Amino acid sequence: MHIISFNVNGIRAITQKTFIQDMRDLNPDIICLQETKASVEQVKEAVSELTDYHVFANEAEKKGYSGTAILSKIEPISVTYDMGIEDHDTQGRIICAEYLDFYLITVYVPNSGSELLRLPYRTTWDSDFLVYLKKLEEKKPVLVCGDFNVAHKAIDLKNPKPNYNKSAGYMQEEIDGMDNFHAEDLVDTFRHFAPEEIKYTWWSYRAGARQKNVGWRIDYFLSSKSFLPNIEKSYILNEILGSDHCPVGVKLK
Q: Which of 11, 33, 169, 214 has its Cα between 20 and 30 A from that of 56?
């Protein structure tokens, strides 16, 4: 099984570029999307050319904001939305698809914001999301993918020193959140296979950051430790354009 995760930064915008052809070329079994910025019906319309997939989408109450989707060739056993906490469940940030051997969760984690005004909320989110994942894990292993809006280690961003405790995505509270996932045996699959590799998944639109590869690795596949033997490969597809993020993927045995 081949699974792709991609923060598309607007599904209606990216489908006007090379997204449909890119997905056809990759031909994944499952596509997980974040920041669709569209209603459920708008997502379905935007991806309607990808006819081999069952489409599940979650939308925010605020129009044109946040949103996630899962496109799956294999029909899931069940699909659920959000984590059951009112403060978090109006933003369309979570979809969970149940398959025979695991739960697949796509997530768009809140950004702390340029002024860090949402950092306290973000910290609460991380804590609540971990509880949600561990509850799922009582039944089956979890594979969770998406935009976590944090560079975990210094290797995961081009300029760690000037950004540490100054920029959203590299605050100690956010790093602690990712540490907590790891402490609860949710493993960063890319780092599991490539402990020293420098590769990024997001670049600012400013100052030619992508051309200069001044980036951050903030998109992940985290896996239950017990599920790791089922994962053959975890990788980053830097060459695919259309968003300020690039896709990340895993191949299962």
A: 169
